Amino acid sequence: MLRFLTAGESHGPALVVVIEGIPAGLGLDVGAIDHQLWRRQQGYGRGQRMKIERDLVEVLAGVRRGETLGSPISLLIRNRDWKNWQRTMSVEAAPPPGAGGADRPAVTRPRPGHADLAGGIKYDRQDLRDVLERASARETAARVAAGAVARQLLGAVGVEVFSHVTRIGPVGDEGEAAVPIERVRQVSDDQPLRCADSALEARMVEAIDAARNAGDTLGGAFEVVAVGVPVGLGSHVQWDRKLDGRLAQALMSIPAIKAVGIGLGEDAGRRPGSAVHDEIVLEEPADGTSRAVSWTAPLARPTNRAGGLEGGITNGEPLRVSAVMKPIATLMQPLRSVDLATMQPSPAAIERSDVCAVPAAAVIGEAMVALVLADALLEKTGGDSLREVVASIDRERAHARARLGRTAPGRGE
Ligand code: EPS
Fold first, then answer.
1. How many angstroms separate the alpha carbon of residue 45 from the centre of ligand 1?
2. How far is the centre of ligand 1, averaged over its atoms, from the C-alpha of 139 (Å)?
3. Where are the domains of the chain?
């Protein structure tokens, strides 16, 4: 229903994304897209590149007088660093006169953990820059722009998506309880690492400093939360319609993501069933969902260990999805590699890079979750216009509530 494709190299002129399937009549706030791009650029541990870039979106198609048309939306984000790379990244066989920047030598020493070696062999490239330019996480700026559009569609039916960082390298909360939704919501973009626990965050900052001083890098983990999600997105009836599987694919496609969890995630494998499954009771909703917007009142769940998904279908509880990011592959104290030009042992190439980018990955995770949810929403509601989408959701919510009200005599609203 909703699809998007990105294009662009890290040091090329720009990134672009084409999004198809956004219904007509959505008032598009371009400033809100820029805000999401800004959020992706923040976080303690980013490198020099983020001092150069100031990502801003240009809308090329699909919007007129502030509203979407139902036609493909095309967004462009210019790379400010392009001016320093015009010779190296020139489209022409020979850089045109006046092209800026240096002629950089070919990259021939693949970095362990990056796409350099496998991509160079697969695409038969001698200069590994031909691979790393596209494998670079710079591409995720385009995803965040697309996600910011999806987020605005979701906002029109009351869905909100946010995130927090839960681990940087060895520093993380070992407690078993999930961080309450309201604390996650209060995490500020001005915090260095967007962690809900400020004492933990201070230790995370120290861990990043130590890694930087050692010429090393750090990964970590984050959680994305979505509240107000309608019941019934995704389906149990076929493998490729299960929403947990679709979310896992979307999050796993973010560079450096190595594991994805839904709700308890891997902890679910350590507990007995009685400490994993969420009881169904007749009372107020437990966490983050007010009764006024609940789809399932008077039914409620005292816990949400399932992370809002059962059978691959959203169940009316907040969606909670986590992901683990490995450390960035470019090390200032490089690992052993082999120079493919000489076939001699040689330290891996050093590219300017970040020490830690987990807070950025969390913002990208929000964007991917928003895109998957928007796709699943449109699958459920259909609709060429926003009016149709909203009417469908209102109708389905009213139906669910009337049905549950009937089956709980005396408790219906
Ligand atoms: C990246 C290397 C760095 C990062 C980049 C991802 O870029 P550069 O090689 O220009 O220093 O800053 O991330 C971004 C540019 C971005 O916008 O997130 C890599 O090799 O993946």
1. 12
2. 9
3. 3-404
pLDDT in tens, 280-330: 999 765 565 555 568 898 999 999 999 999 999 999 999 999 999 999 999
**CA-132 nearest atom, ligand 1:** 20
**Region of 25 on the Ramachandran plot (φ > 0 left; ψ -120 to 50 alpha; else beta):** left
Reference 249, options 193, 306, 159, 312; nearest CA is 312
Residue with tokens 């001016």, as numbered in its chain: 83
What is the C-alpha radius of gyration for the chain, rounded to an integer number of angstroms? Answer: 23
Assign a CATH topology to domain 3-404. Chorismate synthase, AroC fold (3.60.150)
Sign (positive/negative) of CA torsion 370, 371, 372, 377?
A: positive
Is the pTM higher than 0.85? The answer reads yes
How is residue 75 written in tokens? 């967004």
- Residue 68 CA, ligand 1 centroid: distance in Å: 31
- 230 with 400: CB under 8 angstroms? no
CA distance 103 to 94: 11
